[in-house]
Amino acid sequence: MTATVTVGEFSRLTHLSVKTLHHYHEIGLLAPASVDPSSGYRRYGTTQVETALLIRRLRELRMPLPEVRDLVESTDGVKREETLRTHLERMEKELAHTREVVTSLRELLTPGQPVLDVEYRFIPPFRAYGVQGRVDRDDIGPWCEYAFGKLDAVAGDIKARAGATYSDEFFTEEAGQVVAFLPVAPDQAPADGVELVDLPGGFFAIAVHSGPLTDFDRSYGALGSHVAEHCEVAPGPIRELYVVGPGDDPDPTTYRTEICWPIQRIPALKG
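Above: the chain sequence. Below: its structure as tokens.
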């Protein structure tokens, strides 16, 4: 038997607040069974309880409202399963990221962390396939997937390590020029979807960041402090060389990234 109840009663049935139910009605997600034309009072059918609980569960999983609507309204079981699977995979990635941040925080609060090893190197100028653009800091992950996907598509038998340069503005203004590159031979032919770029040579102070990129800033802080204390900084973007990255191994603990800080010259070593 089907019955209708007031919005307050429906709120108690579903543990959705009246305010939330009004919002869901306004956006067309969960409309009441009837609305009194004179008073505006809403009434819901008891057959809507299951739908309301489904919406509540999906929102507890932080599924965006447009995806909730698609899932609730769809009668295609395969499509509904795909929508849910995609969201759960996204949540699992967020959970893994949260765990990495917590691990990094604990390490940051633990005294006696090892000092970062720094080496000095002269890198000659070289030609590379490149993808470049002005990138917001918050968008660097998706942009790198796009850019290195372009480079992978034209890499062929090239065995060189890919990398990227980051302008000062990328750090200071939270948006700046980024160049993803893959070194090639000086006479390399052009390729579709990428540019041929010439990167200048120079001296660099270099440190290796090992493991996930969650605490990348700690390696930057340690290397930058070393450079400030022992070197003369040279103009030019910071470079990163991806010795082992996401395209090489899905396990973030295996990642190895060389951070290359431009310096004027190799400082005299004190014996």
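The chain has eight helices and eleven strands.
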